[in-house]
Amino acid sequence: MRILFDQNISFRVLTLIEDSFPGCAQVILLNLENFTDLQIWSYAKENNYAIATFDSDFSDMSGLYGHPPKIIWLRTGNLNSRMVAQLFVK
Questions:
Q1: Distance between CA 10 and CA 26 in Å, rounded?
Q2: What are the backbone dihedrals phi and psi of residue 86, each rounded to the nearest 5 degrees, phi first?
Q3: 12 pLDDT exceeds 80?
Q4: pTM for the full predicted model
Q5: Whose CA is closest to 52, among 3, 14, 86?
Q6: What is the 3-state secondary structure (H, E, C) of 4-64?
Q7: Is the pLDDT of residue 90 over 80?
Q8: 76 Cβ partners below 8 Å, 6+ apart?
Q9: Taking Cα atoms as reference points, which of 72, 43, 47 lies closest to residue 58?
Q10: CA angle at residue 27 from 23 to 33, to 5 degrees?
Q11: Is residue 20 very low, low, confident or very high in pLDDT (cuts 50, 70, 90)?
Q12: Which of 1, 27, 32, 40 is the most exposed place for a label (fewest CB within 10 A)?
């Protein structure tokens, strides 16, 4: 699974999970940080990404538009990069 991490999740997570989830990306590294949520949604859909986020916005969009993309809504509050990576890789 390729995961697109929202801008509220650090790009540092990518190096911590790349062995288990190759091909992942982060919104800022793709120069999508000034794009709307709908534009990021469309990018993820067109490029076969699931979206990982701390915000409910993408979950709400999933309810409206269905999937793909799949949404991974991290409802844990803010975590550092290592803690986020541990949610994906044990």
A1: 8
A2: -65, -25
A3: yes
A4: 0.93
A5: 3
A6: EECCCCCCHHHHHHCCCCCCCEECCCCCCCCCCHHHHHHHHHHCCCEEEECCCHHHHHHHH
A7: no
A8: 54, 87
A9: 72
A10: 160
A11: very high
A12: 1
Tokens linked to 83: 């803690």
Cα(53)–Cα(74) distance, rounded to whole angstroms? Answer: 6
By the 8 A CB rule, do 69 and 50 touch? yes
Please give the structure tokens belonging to residue 37.
């949520």
Structure tokens at 14: 């990518």
What does the mean pLDDT of the chain come to? Answer: 94
H or E element: which one contains 87? helix 81-88
Average pLDDT over residues 5-32: 95
Taking residues 13-36, what's their average pLDDT?
96
**Which residue is associated with the tokens 């538009």?**
65
